[in-house]
Amino acid sequence: MILPHHQCAAAIIQNAAGNVLLVQQNYGSHAWGAPGGVVEAGETPMAAAIRETSEEVGLNVALSHLIGIYLLHGGGWPDILAHVFMADVLSGLEHIVDAGEIARLEWRGPSERPSPLVTDVEAALDDLAAGRREWSERFSAPGSCRH
To answer: N or C end: fewer C-beta atoms under 10 angstroms in the chain?
Structure first.
């Protein structure tokens, strides 16, 4: 299998009550997802997840483990390798840093999933709930790796 050149990374953050921090895009389909974004040239997926979380919701995080790597394809977008990590908050209070990028943020229970939810985060939440940590191939709709 040839891996795609495009990559993104996201951070799943849970609070003490077990709720997950989700953000809604302020562009495109206004889909929901986890804080995250494109892995820049010379950057690791881990560094991208940490950077994007700070840039989007103002939280400094440490990654505890990889939940999964998801191959997203379809919808007219190039294939994208999405890395989704579990993260712990080190400091900061969640807030919208860039209203041009993020419309809303909400803490949601594991079964309270907004719609539309990006494919990589939906798969990661399923894998997290099932205790899985593995490679998963998912088919995506346009904008699924919106980060």
So the answer is: N
Distance CA 116, CA 126 (A): 15
Q: Does 124 score more than 80 pLDDT?
A: yes
Classify residue 106 by burial, with Cβ atoms within 10 Å: 0-12, 13-18, 19+. Answer: middle
d(CA 31, CA 59): 21
Q: Is 96 helix (H, G, I), strand (E, B) or coil?
A: coil
Q: How far apart, in whole angstroms, are the C-alpha atoms of residue 23 and residue 36?
A: 9
Q: Identify the residue whose tokens are 């907004």.
A: 114
Tell me the pLDDT tens digit for each residue of 53-76. Answer: 999 999 999 999 999 999 888 767
Q: Residue 53: how many CA atoms within 13 Å on its side-chain side?
A: 30
Q: Is the pLDDT of residue 145 over 70?
A: no
